[in-house]
Amino acid sequence: MQARREWQTLRWALLLLSSPPFSLKNRVTGSFYAASVLFVAPSLIPGTGQGLFTSQRLPKDSWLCEYLGTRLSLR
């Protein structure tokens, strides 16, 4: 079940990145981010596979998308 959720999240992110440029609306603040700020790359956390990253700094607690996987950290 967990692997399926992670795959769905990654698949959604890849679909998002391969689509024509558009904006992502933050449902809480109503602000927009260009989809080009997101990219998928190997995770910096050892043994976790791929991760979703941003190409620029975003304000703390910015909402980009729902993540259904297990939250991991380096701590």
Automatic annotation (TrEMBL):
<keyword id="KW-0489">Methyltransferase</keyword>
<feature type="transmembrane region" description="Helical">
    <location>
        <begin position="33"/>
        <end position="53"/>
    </location>
</feature>
<dbReference type="GO" id="GO:0032259">
    <property type="term" value="P:methylation"/>
</dbReference>
<dbReference type="InterPro" id="IPR046341">
    <property type="entry name" value="SET_dom_sf"/>
</dbReference>
<protein>
    <submittedName>
        <fullName>Histone lysine methyltransferase, SET</fullName>
    </submittedName>
</protein>
<keyword id="KW-0472">Membrane</keyword>
<keyword id="KW-1133">Transmembrane helix</keyword>
<dbReference type="GO" id="GO:0008168">
    <property type="term" value="F:methyltransferase activity"/>
</dbReference>
<keyword id="KW-0808">Transferase</keyword>
<keyword id="KW-0812">Transmembrane</keyword>
